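quick one before i forget lol
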Amino acid sequence: MKIRSAEVIVSSPDRNFVTLKITTEEGITGLGDATLNGRELAVSAYLEHHVVPLLIGRDAHRIEDTWQFLYRGAYWRRGPVTMAAIAAVDVALWDIKAKAAGMPLYQLLGGASRTAVRAYGHASGRDIPEILDSVREHLELGYKSIRIQTAVPGINAVYGVAAQPTAGGVRYDYEPAQRAALPAEEDWDSRAYLRHIPTVFEAVRNEFGPELPLLHDGHHRMTPIQAARLGKSLEPYDLFWLEDCTPAENQDALRLVRQHTTTPLAIGEVFNTVWDYQTLIREQLIDYVRSAVTHTGGISAMKKILDYAAQYQIKSGIHGPTDISPVGMAAALHLDLAIHNFGIQEYMRHGDLTNQVFEQSFSFVDGYLHPGDKPGLGVELNLEAAAAHPYEPAYLPFNRLKDGTIHDW
């Protein structure tokens, strides 16, 4: 089954997305997500100029061979741009293979290991009453697990707080990328954050009791000893996980955090390959793998990482914010449904314009997701709707400390 064409589509319904559409000589199409928030055109150029010409005439069924060719054949390996491009090809080829087989993709991955996929939502607020209201809203929507993000007294803008104004206005569904010519500057104070967060979780636990699974994202902003302190201070509130507590490029740093807290740790949304996880998984320094299918080489690569993690009782927690398109989300759901060591799936609902561009079959019912049973991924791209929303420049913010030093955002 030879590849006849491959097209890169960049569109901006609600936010920017990069989609790869591969078509075989038999007319079967497959979609892959190559979105890289704030650097979308870097991936689209990599695909258009360096990857698409290599695909024409290749056998669409040879997924593993194509993956190895794009990874090893480039010589310059890894990195988010390269791995997002490879992921788009990989997912599109899996979509084609499953359509050719007449099956939903998860069937080709070994079939379902569960009836549905537990998801968590994102509650946030500028103060504790607003956070409690946000939790109630998410419970009413059906979520059974909820991430808690909060504004911090003395800090003007904090990641993950939807109602908090920014230079570009109120964030779209927690999406911090702002449509502007230059990135916005935000501030940060770790000591203020470390003092405030435990009081927020105390209030949430007092209001909603001990059974509701609660999560929190530190967004790489702490040093290892600060992360250890936060993990220990949150132990009374029994978190499902503490995410990205410190920049994990320094994998050894997680040893220090592990020594001081039993709070479960989730790491990896900025990781791109198994090599980023090698020490963390082998030494059991984390509890959940947080990579996105879109940024980590696709379904083929993510399944290998999660199979490796399963040897150490480490589970999945695949990245799923609104900067992962519905194509990338569907790919994650098929993998979630099939693997044995599933943990939880991040799920942020896309806006109406995005749902018009990407026609989806996956469902969210009573806190659980299912990819649907249409052949392939179950997502189709409305090219006419996509063309109505051209690319718009957008950047993620950056942080400075009070003395002007650039800090991790």
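fyi The two ends are 45 Å apart (CA to CA).
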